[in-house]
Amino acid sequence: MLVFERRRQPSKFWTTITPVLAVVLTMIVGGIMFALLGKNPVEAIRTIFWSPLFDPNLSAYARPQILVKAAPLVLIAIGLSIGFKANIWNIGAEGQYIMGAIFGGGVALALYPLEAWWIFPLMILSGILGGILWAMLPALLKIKFRTNEILVSLMLVYVSEHFLASVSLGLLRNPDGIGFPGSRNLQQYASASNGELFTGTGIHLGVIAAFVSIFALYGLIKFHRIGFQVRVTGQSERISRFAGVNPNLMVIFCLATGGGLAGLAGIFELSGPTGQLSIDFNVGYGFTAIIVAFLGRLNPFGMALAALLMALTYIGGELAQFMLNLPAAAIQALQGMLLFILLSMDFLSQYRIKIRKLA
Amino acid sequence: MTRKLFHRVVALLATLLLSFGFAKADPAKVGFVYVGPVGDFGWTYEHDQGRIAVEEAFGDKVETSYVESVPEGADAERVLTQMALAGNELIFTTSFGYMDPTINVAAKFPDVKFEHATGYKRADNVATYSARFYEGRAVIGHIAGKMTKTNQIGYIASFPIPEVVRGINSAYIHAKKVNPDVEFKIVWVFTWFDPAKEADAAQTLIEQGVDVIMQHTDSTAPMSIAEEKGIFAFGQASDMMEFGPTARLSSIIDNWAPYYVERTQALLDGTWESVDTWDGISTGMVEIGEFSERIPEDVRAEAQAISDSIADGSYHPFTGPINKQDGSAWLGDGETADDGTLLGMNFYIEGLTGSIPN
Q1: Where are the domains of chain B?
Q2: Which fold has domain B9-131?
């Protein structure tokens, strides 16, 4: 008879190996789904996971694009992971991302057509500020009234989407746009453009920032006192008080880093690959980053890998759509499967499976 | 004997050569990028019907493919680049928000042809196309004005952009013409496709006493609500008959098939050029769906007459005298609107209440 025995500590081995197992299992289950849809499962899985990296025609373009797509996911996930470690749940990164773009983009559009070197740094700073301010609403409400930051931060996403629609149609609308919604394209405004650093790759400053953030988080958690405080708070708020942590400051710190990095991702994305503030500017990075944070076990390098994997499935998924006529919904189902399988496999790191003879 | 063998060998060689020749003639690849799912039964569905028509018209000579639910912005640019890299020769980008990405990618692939729907930026390898949906709005506006008992017509609008404002104005003019007491209640949902939001909007309108609903959004949700509540509605983008068999009075169908077939033919013939197309009822790009039996016969005849007169060019839906909402004159008696004003239309006409949000 099979018995599940709770481990005293989560198994190191299984914690490391389950993400890999989950990916393999997702490929198998996903392959079965593709086969049921009447597609060749091997070819479908190959197109999604292999073609962007190694197809002779496409990989030269797709490889750096994976980094570009992963960059905002990494930035946001890194910021969120600090809070998650401390049991502070900022679910509203999508809104903070939007506000970062509106604040940073607003600065640029207000200064247009002035050309000056300080415009771009100013945009970045106000982008970060926009994200922080938006994250301070749930933080202050939590400190002052003990509101639930999960609900408040999530609800504020919808508020920020309305803000976005409003400025796209009014305040920041392109005056030369013949009445259509959307701002000027910052790609065509030299001082505000976050252009590609290496020709033809699309790699912009945000990708570099994402790299830096990985190591910054690693250093913070490993070597800085705040990293220790975050971990202690996550284990028990009561104990953390004895360790001298001010829980209110901790709430502010966690939401500010999450919001600030989300805002930073927003302004990099706006000034770089997207260029234009429009009603549909946000495409869900703030929510996908939550998946990335958990796929990566809140570990900075794990999250980087998880973001790359998600980016790969997006780009490979697009290829599978137009090369194999797979529906978009099947790709989304595959991504959902990945998270579901990973979370259910957490069981293995928490429990030991034993075979016991019946008495 | 030898001669027979010789013939056989020749025949065999010929077949081989022929089949080799066919295999060599790679089909021309035509790609489509959609903003919604192909199963929306509205905007994207009709574009996909156009794609299927291309497949049917050209058979082995053309191979089509598509990517659905592509967000506007950076993702669209990447998808377009990958489609170009994968060897697509003609790519249709079917949403306004794909405008800048299309122009950017087109600049990098001068040999690939692009067609952008509803935009205004063109290049040597970027053509634009759109449909005069406001012509269809004139016909259904007339029907709505005749059919409403409460004199309240609900309008579910997506975004306050010229195309949507134009539709509201056109529908209102023609409803008002046949029913001076008519009032329009307009709800802005700020989405093209969100069945839940659209359904909520329809519910709200019905609670306010509306008995005819028009929509400028892509889902079938308002039609289903209209059916459930026993009021009237019109199919939008596609016919939507199945979703409101009794509620549906008529529909405005976007028929992209002839245009897509024509442009693909031009690609094959090597005669493709960057053009700006804005077609309406006359070419069939805007189709009026079959009139419901519930519309009285005389009203059906009138609606048909409006449609016919727009098609033959003898009538323009925006014919003066028309004043703007603030009472200032826009079109004088008998004057018709020019395309420039229509393309940038950002004002309501006289009689409409409320303001265009921004």
Answers
A1: 9-131, 133-253+286-343
A2: Rossmann fold (3.40.50)
Q: Do domains B9-131 and B133-253+286-343 have the same CATH topology?
A: yes
pTM summary value = 0.87
* Angle (deg, nearest 10), helices A300-324 and A12-36: 10
Strand partners, A147: none
Indicate the domain borders of chain A.
38-326
The interface pTM score, or ipTM, of the predicted complex is 0.87
Give the pLDDT confidence of A109-163 residue by residue, as tens digits: 999 989 999 999 999 999 999 999 999 999 999 999 999 999 999 999 999 999 9
Burial class, B186, CB count within 10 angstroms (exposed 0-12 / middle 13-18 / buried 19+):
buried
Give me the architecture of the A38-326 domain, per CATH. Orthogonal Bundle (1.10)
- Measured in angstroms, the CA of A244 and the nearest CA of chain B are apart by 46
| Residue A283 to residue B71, Cβ atoms within 8 A | yes
Alpha carbon distance A39, B134 (integer Å): 42
Q: Say how far apart CA A102 and CA A19 lie, in whole Å.
A: 36
Q: What is the DSSP letter of B336?
A: B
| CATH architecture label of B133-253+286-343 | 3-Layer(aba) Sandwich (3.40)
Chain A / chain B CB contacts < 8 angstroms = 102
Interface contact flag, B358 A169, Cβ < 8 Å? yes
- Per the CB < 8 A criterion, the answer to whether A319 and A48 are in contact is yes
